[in-house]
Specification:
Elements lengths: L1 H8 L5 H4 L3 H8 L3 E6 L2 E13 L27 E6 L2 E7 L8 E11 L1 H8 L11 H7 L17 E4 L15 E2 L25
Parallel strand pairs: 2-7
Antiparallel strand pairs: 1-2, 1-6, 2-5, 3-4, 4-5
The chain binds a DNA duplex (13 and 13 nucleotides) through strand 3, strand 4 and helix 5.
DNA sequence: AAAACGATCTACT
DNA sequence: GTAGATCGTTTTG
């Protein structure tokens, strides 16, 4: 089955990957691959910017004031998606740490790797640089909406995060920051270089 | 039921 | 760099 071939090309990250400190997961997600398969085709992109939301003492976290209908996924088990709407757009998080400890990593930017024409069609944007630079932009490019809130990202079906295929290696590290802070500004000048496998660029 | 509030984006200067 | 759009979600009455 083609589905199995895709899962071999993009092996999904395990539950254990997500079941640890949110900052550690955020760092480790840099250089991984977001994969989405729809009826229209496959899109994949390298994660180049993330933002961690802490389980304690983080007033910017949606979970800071306890559970609500919107943030319920953040309180669930690790390895699932938390998708929320902001300003009429969707944003994707990966939930981390054990159930009951509400932490998550916001996926802020991707370097488009595969299915670029499909992303351009979905976004009505030509410039590859602008296709997935920004948490809501990447969701539009990958056709991610509230239907994926709570989605299990470890199954390797429809939507998941994967170890990158060797063909994605460029050897050039993007100058991207991991942040755990409020009011982090989106990167306006992401270099379009996918990096792996270690993630030596962190913090600040 | 109504109002206020954004983990944003786009266009424009 | 910033004003304005825009609508789902939460908070308030």
């Amino acid at each position: 089955m083609k589905r199995d071939a895709d899962r071999r090309t993009f092996p999904p990250l395990s539950r254990d990957f997500y079941d640890r400190n949110v900052v550690a997961v955020a760092r480790a997600l840099l250089g991984k691959c977001l994969v989405r398969i729809s009826d229209d085709g496959l899109t994949a992109g390298g994660i180049v910017e993330v933002e961690a939301y802490l389980p304690q003492g983080d007033p910017a976290s949606h979970a800071h004031r306890g559970p609500t209908r919107r943030n319920a996924s953040m309180f669930g088990p690790p390895g699932h998606a938390y998708v929320y709407a902001i300003h009429s757009r969707w944003c994707l998080n990966a939930v981390t740490q054990p159930a009951g400890i509400a932490s998550a990593v916001l996926i802020r930017a991707l370097e488009p790797l595969h299915g670029i024409a499909l992303m351009q069609r979905r976004r009505q944007v030509d410039n590859v640089r602008d296709l997935a630079r920004g948490p809501a932009r990447l969701c539009e490019a990958f056709a991610i909406d509230r239907a994926f809130d709570g989605w299990d990202l470890t199954r390797g079906e429809v939507l998941w995060i994967a170890d990158p295929p060797a063909s994605a290696v460029s050897g050039q590290a993007p100058q991207i920051a991991v942040s755990t802070r409020i009011g982090v500004t989106a990167a306006r000048d992401l270099p379009l270089r996918f990096f792996l496998p270690a993630n030596p660029f962190v913090s600040k």
